[in-house]
Amino acid sequence: MAQLTHRTSSLLKPLSFATRHLSSTTPITIETSLPFTGHNIEPPSRSVETTPQELLKFFRDMALMRRMEIASDSLYKAKLIRGFCHLYDGQEAVAVGMEAAITRKDCIITAYRDHCLFLGRGGKLVEAFAELMGRKEGCSKGKGGSMHFYKKEGGFYGGHGIVGAQVPLGCGLAFAQKYSKDENVTFAMYGDGAANQGQLFEALNMAALWDLPAILVCENNHYGMGTAEWRAAKSPAYYKRGDYVPGLKVDGMDAFAVKQACKFAKEHALKNGPIILEMDTYRYHGHSMSDPGSTYRTRDEISGVRQERDPVERIRKLVLAHDLATEKELKDTEKELRKEVDDAIAKAKESPLPDPSELFTNIYVKGYGVESYGADRKELRAVLP
Amino acid sequence: IRSEARTISGAINGSRKTGKVITKAVAAQAESPASAASKPGHELLLFEALREGLEEEMDRDPRVCVFGEDVGHYGGSYKVTKGLAEKYGDLRVLDTPIAENSFTGMAVGAAMTGLRPIVEGMNMGFLLLAFNQISDNCGMLHYTSGGQFTIPTVIRGPGGVGRQLGAEHSQRLESYFQSIPGIQMVACSTPYNAKGLMKAAIRSENPVVLFEHVLLYNLKERIPDEEYVLSLEEAEMVRPGEHVTILTYSRMRYHVMQAAKTLVNKGYDPEVIDIRSLKPFDLYTIGNSIKKTHRVLIVEECMRTGGIGASLTAAINENFHDYLDAQIVCLSSQDVPTPYAGTLEEWTVVQPPQIVAAVEQLCK
């Protein structure tokens, strides 16, 4: 008992010499939570190099993403966001870890659970919220919605509604990278549900055939909407499904494991062609806002994962353990982020709805000097009621 | 809204031919010397014309590439890409495995970054497997991304009823694709317009579906030597006339011209227009013709239900109702899977005697 109090009191030392002896670029070595499991490949080491700056950035980014998703939840319930809204909370470590390992010239393409990846690629909060609410200032001018976030300058190719269709697109992005010889890679992300799509294997075959720099990332949150992975797949070892393509199983709740795996995968893909990464992760919300998320799994399971494996908590503990900030400072950061999110929502709410003429823009690119709109080549104008 | 002749602008990697581009080139009759060509030109078959167009575009812009089954080493199942793999390499003329859904998806993904892929479906019917990629990703990405991405792909392949190829290889799929917002559809029918449309489709920033016909690949025609590109949204006046407007495209053009010979002998003067652009329709040319003749006959190979003819009938009725003296007659192929037996197959599509009878009925 005495030992315990002694230990805690040393952590609660006031900000003096103890906490600030590390400069923001001193390397720290962190062990990942679990070792990597490889399929047809030697897995990378468990030790990850990082810096205090990066640790704090991870915390900030993940807390922001978490805050954004919770805020979207309330906005959806307030009927400001309509349609489908697929939330990413619980899986933030994948987005943040991946971003840390790559550049903006590498491409990421994913399915509909894209809000946080959009943020990671340089998207602004206002753009995200405005798009969710269907406003003009949204990243797709309000015409895409939750499932169609894109950021061309950031190398984020969306944002796709049909399950699995983004994987051949991702291989196409990798093809273009190989064609222009620019030493970048593409991360084509999909879920455990999409892992059973035929087009995935077709695309994987072609990527392996032509040595395309494509990295297929399976974000395995163990549920394909309401169906558990063991009920949908004969072999839930998604990283082994590539057969001749090497695979790596990663703890997707540990941002550093994700970072290490993505760095390793990028090096591999540039030399040897495609590789599959399976991120073992979890989503706290249901599949989308119309799914309560508790009919096919117990609340105990959800809270259990939240207690033991929560990605933001893990980074918080690491920050505290390395004395990079105090509890209070982290709480203040979270308050700051909450305010940032609230401000963004307020700004997005003020943004107007798109003009009625926007109904007909961006259907065709006006190429070659001819205006063309509908099947009967009339210029369509409308005044919406 | 008339097309404006504009020379190509915009940055393109690599060298550009500074030749003048003729945008409103309307096909002349094969025997008429007053065509756009000042030199006699050269004679070739339709598939060679397609290849010529493809090759010129690949020379001009290094971003143009071809994806398809057997397009590389084999030379293309209809020889359209013969010799191109030797010239441009295996990456630019890519032999894909038999995975239409994915390689169409790959083409769309490549197009998102700026490449200009041409997807060859060995038969248009196989592209049904890629329908999701064509409809959702190809057609809609420009819209759902708020204009951030353009998808300059060309999807081409032979379709239509051939010589006893069986039901699954004789599909007329123009009707399936026509509702997809965001794509343009064109159908070529002569070597002249095949080359011109191929070049225009490659240069267009929009996704274009180019419908060729299995039986038209060996048509011979003399085409100009100099470079020309046709407009993707214009129809072609094949034979001016006074009595009735016959709208047609692809192979049915030849059935109509055959029927036209009989009709001329019987004293009728049909105006034959090859609509070429299936989406959007060239209502300017069609409208001018209707204002002159007041009678319309549509002859197409597409299915009766929900086909191109059905849309065209609706569009004409909506826009030119006042100019019509008679109801629009639409002759399309029967709503049946194409049978194998030769006689049955013949009666699936519209034959010249049926066209003659329809015109006579219309002009009563």
From TrEMBL, chain A:
Q: Using the UniProt record, name the top-level EC class of this enzyme in a single word.
A: oxidoreductase
EC number assigned by the record: 1.2.4.1
- Where on the tree of life does the source sit, at the highest rank? Eukaryota
Q: Which cofactor does it need?
A: thiamine diphosphate
Which key words are in the record?
Answer: Oxidoreductase, Pyruvate, Thiamine pyrophosphate
List the InterPro entries. DH_E1, PDH_E1_Alpha_Subunit, Pyrv_DH_E1_asu_subgrp-y, THDP-binding
| Summary of the function given for this chain in its UniProt record | The pyruvate dehydrogenase complex catalyzes the overall conversion of pyruvate to acetyl-CoA and CO(2). It contains multiple copies of three enzymatic components: pyruvate dehydrogenase (E1), dihydrolipoamide acetyltransferase (E2) and lipoamide dehydrogenase (E3).
What this protein is called in its record is: Pyruvate dehydrogenase E1 component subunit alpha
UniProtKB/TrEMBL annotation, chain B:
Q: Which Pfam families match?
A: Transket_pyr, Transketolase_C
Taking every annotated instance into account, which residue ranges of this chain make up the domain Transketolase-like pyrimidine-binding? 44-219
- Please give the SUPFAM superfamilies that the UniProt record associates with this protein: Thiamin diphosphate-binding fold (THDP-binding) (SSF52518), TK C-terminal domain-like (SSF52922)
Q: Which UniProt keywords apply?
A: Oxidoreductase, Pyruvate, Thiamine pyrophosphate
Which top EC class is given?
Answer: oxidoreductase
State the EC number(s): 1.2.4.1
Which domain of life does the protein's organism represent? Eukaryota
Q: Does the keyword Transcription apply?
A: no
Q: Which cofactor does it need?
A: thiamine diphosphate
Recorded hits in InterPro entries, A to Z, give: THDP-binding, Transketo_C/PFOR_II, Transketolase-like_Pyr-bd, Transketolase_C
Q: Reaction catalysed by this chain?
A: N(6)-[(R)-lipoyl]-L-lysyl-[protein] + pyruvate + H(+) = N(6)-[(R)-S(8)-acetyldihydrolipoyl]-L-lysyl-[protein] + CO2
Purpose: The pyruvate dehydrogenase complex catalyzes the overall conversion of pyruvate to acetyl-CoA and CO(2). It contains multiple copies of three enzymatic components: pyruvate dehydrogenase (E1), dihydrolipoamide acetyltransferase (E2) and lipoamide dehydrogenase (E3).
Identification of the protein by name: pyruvate dehydrogenase (acetyl-transferring)
Q: Which organism is it from?
A: Penstemon davidsonii
